[in-house]
Amino acid sequence: MKLFLKGMKCYTKCPLERKNYPPGMHGRTRHPRLTPYGMQLREKQKVKRIYGVLERQFELYFERALRLRGPTGENLLRLLEKRLDNVIYRAGLAHSRAHARQLVRHGHVLVDGRKVDIPSYEVAVGQEIQLTEAARQNPMVQQAIEFAASHRPVPAWLSAHREEGRVRVVAEPRREDIDFTVQEHMIVELYSK
Predict the structure, then answer these.
(1) Which of 119, 165, 166, 160 is nearest to 142 (CA)?
(2) Confidence of residue 17 (pLDDT cuts 50, 70, 90)
(3) Per residue in 176-185, is it b (16+ CB within 10 Å) or e — as a string?
(4) Which of 36, 94, 124, 183 lies 20 to 30 Å (CA to CA) from residue 88?
(5) For residue range 146-171, what is the model confidence (pLDDT) as tens digits?
């Protein structure tokens, strides 16, 4: 499955489209049956890799999601969606979540006028995120903005002014706003063992 980890490359020349089978000598011929545990683990790993989160951090997100009201799986995805690096990516100001993470770590992001260099910073409704002037002049950022204008729409919970490098969080993210296929109930089942 395409996870769009490489930004624009996933739209143009994705290796998954060229070779739709596992690597190695027996990649085409052997298809091991996945156990229920294997499928649950694969879902968890997929979400971890999409958001660029390590194991311990993911466990902490899951524990927080357990304490919130509502379905645990949706709460988990909602918490991951509200990460600062993800908001910048979803607004179309970066090619990939890794690129957005680098922008944040290098101090190119302001939240309500204050510099924030923590990619896992959780944004709240009403906060305004903007790129510094130096970041807006960066050719990679300009290229990402142009590419996103034609390929990636802004989710409903964000209000983005891409040319100005500004994003405002107008609502909480909903399950319908997540644009990739994930079965969050399998992650909950995995952690409930």
Answers:
(1) 165
(2) low
(3) ebbeeebebe
(4) 183
(5) 988 888 889 999 998 988 999 999 99
Identify whether 65 is part of a domain. yes
Interacting residues of 48 by C-beta distance below 8 A, sequence separation 6+: 54, 55, 58
The answer to whether 178 and 47 have CB atoms below 8 angstroms apart is no
User: How far from the centroid of its chain's Cα atoms is residue 134's Cα?
Assistant: 24
Looking at the predicted structure, is the pLDDT value of residue 100 above 70? Answer: yes
Q: Is 20 part of a structural domain of the chain?
A: no
Q: Tokens 């918490």 correspond to what residue?
A: 79
* CATH (domain of 126): 3.10.290.10
Residue type for 13, please? K
Q: Can you give the pLDDT at residue 3? A: 58
Angle at which helix 139-151 crosses helix 97-105, to 10 degrees, equals 140
> Which strand (E) or helix (H) includes residue 111?
strand 109-111
- Mean pLDDT, range 77-106, rounded to an integer: 94
pTM (predicted TM-score): 0.85
In a domain? residue 10: no
Q: Give the structural domain span for 104.
A: 35-175+184-193
Q: Dig out the tokens for 74 from the structure.
A: 């949706």
Number of structural domains in the chain: 1
